[in-house]
Amino acid sequence: MNLLKDSADQTGLEQLRGWIESGQQPAIGETLQFSLVEVSEGRAVFAGTPGPHAYNPIGSVHGGYAATLLDSACGCAVHAALGAHQGYTTLELKVAYHRGLSASTGPVRAEGKVVSIGKRVAFAEARITDDAGRLYASATSTLLVFEMKSS
């Protein structure tokens, strides 16, 4: 079931709320074990617990785990600001790693917020923090906004 396709006449915020209410998650979230947990106008929050499923060969969480959480948070924050029949794609993602993630880190949250959005381009930022508010990674993102063709 493709909830986004089935809800093409809804705003991005309505679509993402539908995902949360239905209990469904994007496939990448299932693979990396994180979930979209909150969404509001121009804001999205993902939660997950880093662990061995995301380890690299040296025994720490791969940087791609944090980058994927941050890209998801930035992208869905923009998605939550779009009207019906609009889409987006990431043009650029810049990630800064502030401290390493491991299985002992515990749950983390990636909160993304729209900085500005226009007809063709959006800018967003996101931060990964733990339950104590410690910063693990941050990102800025540039995203292309476009009209979706109806089928």
Taking all Cα atoms into account, the compactness measure Rg is: 15 Å
Order of helices and strands: HHHEEHEEEE
Helical coverage, percent range: 25-40%
Q: CATH topology, anyone?
A: Thiol Ester Dehydrase, Chain A
Low-confidence stretches: none
Tell me the distance between the termini.
17 Å
CATH superfamily: Hotdog Thioesterase
Strand content: 35-45%
* CATH-derived architecture: Roll
What does it look like?
The chain has a single domain, classed as Hotdog Thioesterase (Thiol Ester Dehydrase, Chain A). The chain is 25% helix and 38% strand. The protein is built from four helices and six strands. Strands 1-2-4-5-6-3 form a six-stranded antiparallel β-sheet. The mean pLDDT is 93.
Brief summary of the model shown:
By secondary structure, this protein is of the alpha+beta class.
Question: Secondary-structure map with pairings?
Answer:
Layout: H1 3-6, H2 12-22, H3 27-32, E1 34-40, E2 43-48, H4 63-79, E3 86-97, E4 108-117, E5 121-130, E6 135-147
Antiparallel strand pairs: 1-2, 2-4, 3-6, 4-5, 5-6
Core attributes:
151 residues; alpha+beta; Thiol Ester Dehydrase, Chain A; 38% strand; globular
